[in-house]
Automatic annotation (TrEMBL), chains A, B:
The keyword Flavoprotein does not apply. One of its GO terms (molecular function) is homoisocitrate dehydrogenase activity. InterPro entries: IsoCit/isopropylmalate_DH_CS, IsoPropMal-DH-like_dom. Homotetramer. Dimer of dimers. The homotetramer can transiently dissociate into homodimers. Pathway: Amino-acid biosynthesis; L-lysine biosynthesis via AAA pathway; L-alpha-aminoadipate from 2-oxoglutarate: step 4/5. This is Isocitrate/homoisocitrate dehydrogenase. Catalyzes the NAD(+)-dependent oxidative decarboxylation of homoisocitrate to 2-oxoadipate (alpha-ketoadipate), a reaction involved in lysine biosynthesis through the alpha-aminoadipate pathway. In addition, has high activity with isocitrate, but is inactive with 3-isopropylmalate. GO terms for biological process: carboxylic acid biosynthetic process; isocitrate metabolic process; tricarboxylic acid cycle. Residues 3-327 form the Isopropylmalate dehydrogenase-like domain.
Length: 331, 331
C-alpha cells in the first residue's frame, strides 16, 4: 500500500497538514499515513530540526507532505532549515512550482507556467564562513552535473506536458563562471531538444517580465536562489502564496509542500488557507500514481476557488475548516 | 563650472545619451560636457571595456551620465562589465532606484518607493573560480563596513525625503552568515533611528510583495544582487524599464543611468524611449545642485508622460526624436 508521510512542522503548517489529511481521508485515498516531526519546535525540544527518524520516514515513504516550519531570525548554533536539509540529504534535486490562472474573479487570464529550480547547490550549499564581526563569505557552487540534471528534468517535463518553450534564467553577464557554467550546460542539453524553443534571460529581467508579462513564459529553469525568488513572483498570478504548491522531486521519492511559510502572525486562529497544501497533495497523488484521486481533488479545489468560501488571504472570511468542508462536499 | 561626463556605450545607449545631451543643452544647463567611452564596442577596439581615460574622466567630473553597454553572452577573456567595474573602482557604493506612479493611464496609484542597493560587494565581488568543465564557485562577500554604510545612506535618505519606513531585505534563514551579518548590522544602525519604522523581509517574500502590493513599501535596503532583482520588479509600477532611472552615489561623485540595457533588438531604429535617461538626468542635476534645472526637466518629463507622444515600449508609435522635441517644447 502507498505510504504517505506527513510532516506538519510549526505554525499554520500544523493546520494545513491536518486539513490535507482530513481531505485525503474523505477522498478515501488508498494510502496509509505516517507522521514525522521537523522544525523549530522540534529543534527546541530535541536539538535537531530534522531528526534522523524523520529523514528515515521520508525515505521509507512513497511520498511526503511537508507543512511549513518556523526559523529563528537570530543565528542559533546547530539550527539549519529542515526543508533545505531534506532536499540535500535525500537529493531532491528538482523543485517544481507550477502557476496557472486560477478560477478567481479578477485573475489575470492566460498564465500557465512552471518554475523548475535546481534544489541542491548554488547559494544553498551551506558553505559559509564568518570572520568575526567584520566579514562573512558564502560559496555559490554550481556543478555541470547538477545543472545538466535539472535542465534534463525540465526538458522531459516540457515534453511530457506539451509545452514548447524553455527559458534559461541566469546572470552570466556578472557571474561569468558560475552562471556561465549553468548557461553553457543548459544550452548544450537544450540543443538535443530541437522540438523546444529555447530562450535565455538575465535574472533581473526575468523577474521583471514575470511581474508584468507572465503569459510569455512556459517553463523556466534556473539555479537555486533565483528559482526561490522567481517562483514567489510568479505565484502572484496563481492567486498568491495562499495557493502556491511546490514539489521537490528526487530519484526515488518526493516531498510536496505549500510555498508559504509557517505564518506565526495567523497561526492558531484557524484561518490559514489550506488550498496550497491541497494543491501540493494533488501533485503528490499524481507522483504516486493515484491519478484518479488527484483529478477528483483538483476538480474540487477548482470548484471551491470558483465559488468560495474564501479565507482572508483571498479577501474572504471563511475558516480553514469551512474551506476543508467545502472541498469535501465536492466529492 | 559644473562638468558632466557623458558615456554613451553601445546600442540604444548612444541614442538615449545623445537625446539627453540635446535636452540638457536646450535647457541651457550651466555645465560643460565631456564625452568618454566604454562598453563592448570599446572592448573590441581597445581590449578594455572601461579604459583608464574613461575612469579618469568620471573621477574628474562632477557627475556622469552613463547610457548602456552590451555584454557578450559567451565568456570573453578580459571582458568585465564596465558599469560594475566603475562602481567598484570609484566606490560608488549606493545604487538608488526610485519608483513612483507615473502620470500614465492605467498606472497603479500610490506607488512611491525607492530601492537602495549595496553596490560594491556581495555576489558582484568578482571572485569566481572554475574547475575545468565540472564546477564553478563564486564568493558572496558581505562586510560589516559596507553594510553599515549602505544602511546609513538609506536612513539619511529616508529622513531627508520624509519617508518613515525602511524594509531590510535579506535571506538570513538560509544565508545565516552573510545575510546574517547584513541583517544584524542593518538592525543595529536602524536602532539609532527611532523616527523610522523598521521592517525586515526575506528576499523571496519581498519580490512577491513588490509584485503584488508595492504601495506598502517606502525605502528598501538590501545587498547587491537582491537589489538588482528587486529594483527591476519594482520598476514595473513606475511605467517599466523604459522609464526607470538609477543613481550610483559615491563619496565624491556619482554616475546616473537608465536601468534598461543596450537593447540590441531595437538599436539604430530611433525608437528607444529617452525618458529613463532624462529621469536619470534629473537625479544628476539634483546631485550637482542645479535644482531649478532639475525641477524644470522633471516637470517636462511628467507632462510628456501625461500627454504623449509615446515610444513603442509605452504602446505608442513615436520616435526618440519626437519625444525629445516634446520635452524641449515644455521648456
Ligand atoms: C524556507 C526557505 C528555506 C525556503 C527556500 O528558500 O527554499 C522557501 O523560501 C522555499 O521557497 O521553499
Ligand atoms: C548590466 C548589469 C551588470 C547591471 C547589474 O547587474 O547591476 C544591471 O542589471 C543593473 O541593474 O544596473
Amino acid at each position: 500500500m502507498t505510504r504517505l508521510c506527513l510532516i506538519a512542522g510549526d505554525g499554520i503548517g500544523r493546520e494545513v497538514v491536518q486539513a490535507a489529511r482530513q481531505v485525503l481521508e474523505a477522498l478515501a485515498v488508498p494510502a496509509e499515513f505516517v507522521e514525522a516531526e521537523a522544525g523549530w519546535e522540534t529543534f527546541q525540544r530535541t536539538g535537531n530540526a530534522l531528526p534522523e527518524q524523520t529523514l528515515a520516514a521520508v525515505q521509507a515513504a512513497n511520498s511526503t507532505l511537508f507543512g511549513a516550519v518556523s526559523s529563528p531570525s537570530q543565528r542559533v548554533a546547530g539550527y539549519r532549515s529542515p526543508i533545505v536539509g531534506m532536499r540535500k540529504a535525500i537529493d531532491l534535486y528538482a523543485c517544481v512550482r507550477p502557476v496557472q490562472t486560477p478560477p478567481l474573479a479578477n485573475a489575470r487570464a492566460g498564465v500557465n507556467l512552471v518554475v523548475v529550480r535546481e534544489n541542491t547547490e548554488g547559494l544553498y550549499s551551506g558553505q559559509e564562513t564568518r570572520e568575526g564581526d567584520e566579514r562573512a563569505t558564502a560559496q555559490r557552487i554550481i556543478t555541470r552535473q547538477a545543472s545538466e540534471r535539472i535542465v534534463q528534468w525540465a526538458v522531459q517535463y516540457a515534453q511530457r506536458t506539451g509545452r514548447r518553450k524553455i527559458t534559461v534564467v541566469h546572470k552570466a553577464n556578472v557571474l561569468r563562471e558560475t552562471c556561465g557554467l549553468f548557461r553553457e550546460t543548459a544550452l548544450r542539453v537544450l540543443s538535443d531538444a530541437p522540438d523546444l524553443q529555447v530562450e535565455e534571460m538575465l535574472v533581473d529581467n526575468a523577474a521583471y517580465q514575470l511581474a508584468r508579462a507572465p503569459e510569455r513564459f512556459e517553463v523556466l529553469v534556473t539555479t537555486n536562489l533565483f528559482g526561490d525568488i522567481l517562483s514567489d513572483v510568479a505565484s502572484v498570478w496563481g492567486g498568491g502564496l495562499g495557493l502556491a504548491a511546490s514539489a521537490n522531486y528526487g530519484t526515488r521519492t518526493a516531498v510536496f509542500e505549500p510555498v508559504h511559510g509557517s505564518a506565526p502572525d495567523i497561526a492558531g486562529q484557524g484561518i490559514a488557507n489550506p488550498l496550497a497544501t491541497l494543491s501540493a497533495s494533488v501533485l503528490m497523488l499524481e507522483f504516486v500514481g493515484l491519478n484518479s484521486y488527484a483529478e477528483r481533488l483538483q476538480t474540487a479545489i477548482q470548484a471551491v476557488l470558483a465559488n468560495g468560501p474564501y479565507t482572508p488571504d483571498l479577501a474572504g472570511a471563511a475558516t480553514t475548516a469551512e474551506v476543508v468542508q467545502a472541498v469535501i462536499d465536492q466529492f
